[in-house]
Amino acid sequence: xxxxxxxxxxxxxxxxxxxxxxxxxxxxxxxxxxxxxxxxxxxxxxxxxxxxxxxxxxxxxxxxxxxxxxxxxxxxxxxxxxxxxxxxxxxxxxxxxxxxxxxxxxxxxxxxxxxxxxxxxxxxxxxxxxxxxxxxxxxxxxxxxxxxxxxxxxxxxxxxxxxxxxxxxxxxxxxxxxxxxxxxxxxxxxxxxxxxxxxxxxxxxxxxxxxxxxxxxxxxxxxxxxxxxxxxxxxxxxxxxxxxxxxxxxxxxxxxxxxxxxxxxxxxxxxxxxxxxxxxxxxxxxxxxxxxxxxxxxxxxxxxxxxxxxxxxxxxxxxxxxxxxxxx
Length: 328
Fold this sequence. Notes:
Layout: E1 5-11, E2 15-22, E3 28-34, H1 44-63, E4 70-77, H2 83-94, E5 101-104, H3 107-114, E6 120-125, E7 129-134, E8 140-143, H4 155-172, H5 179-188, H6 195-205, H7 208-223, H8 227-251, E9 258-263, H9 265-268, H10 274-286, E10 290-294, H11 299-310, H12 315-324
Parallel strand pairs: 1-4, 4-5, 6-9, 9-10
Antiparallel strand pairs: 1-2, 2-3, 6-7, 7-8
C-alpha cells in the first residue's frame, strides 16, 4: 500500500510553510512559499486562489503523490478574521481536491504547537498582534488582528509608531524629552528632526530592515530607563494581559492550569523584557491559573498536529509527531 500523508500549512504575512508528514514512515518534508495572506497579495483573493492551487500541486509533485494520498490537512492562514473569509478560502482549498481539512487563522496554530494537551491560549507579538484560544472542548475564539478596527495595541508597528509619536510630541508639541530621540538617531543615522520622516518612509516602503532597527531602538531606550519607552512597553503588556483574560473568560476553561504561549519576534527576540514582565505581573495580580511559556515550536508544527487530530491520531501519536518535527 502506498504511503499516506497529513499536511500542515502555516501562512503568514511574509512567508508560508507547508509540511507533508508521512503517516507510516514519520518522514517530514518542508516546503516554503511567499505570503498567503490575501491582504498582502496584490491580486487579493484571486491571487490567493491561484497560490493555494500551486502550493498543493508543488507539495504533491515533491513526493510524486496525488491529493487523495493526503488523508487530512490543516491550513492556518493569516487574514482569516471573519466567517465569510473562512468560507471563501475553504472553497479554494476544496477546489484542489483536498477534502478532510480544517481552515483557521494562523494564531490558532500557536496553541496546537506549544500547548501540550492541544488547548490553551496563544498571544502573538510580531509585526502585528493577535490573541486566540482553544478550550478543552475544542471551542475557539480569536481577538484582535484587525489593527485600528479592533483597537490593537501590540506588534512592532504599533510600538515603533507610538515611540516616534513621543519624539514628535517633543519636537513639535512641547512634550518632554525622551531617550527615544537619541536611540532613533543612532539607529537611523539621521538628526532628531528627521526621525518622523525616516519612520514614515520605512512604513511606506515596508522596509523590514529599518523597521527592525527602530524596534531595537525602542528597547534600547527602555534599557536606559526612559519613561516614555517604558510607558509604551507596559501599555502593550497591559493590552495582552487583558486580552488573555478575555479569551479565558469567554471560553470557560475548566483545567486547573491553562498554558499561555507567547509567540512572535517581539516576545522572543525583544531586547527588553518589560512587556513580558508586565503580562506576568498582571496574571499574578489577577490570580489566574495560567502557565506562561515562550514558544519553542514553529507554528507549522501546530498545523501538522491539528491535521493529525482530524486524521484520528491519538495524543501519544501527536506527541511523537511534535518530537519528529522539533528541528524542522
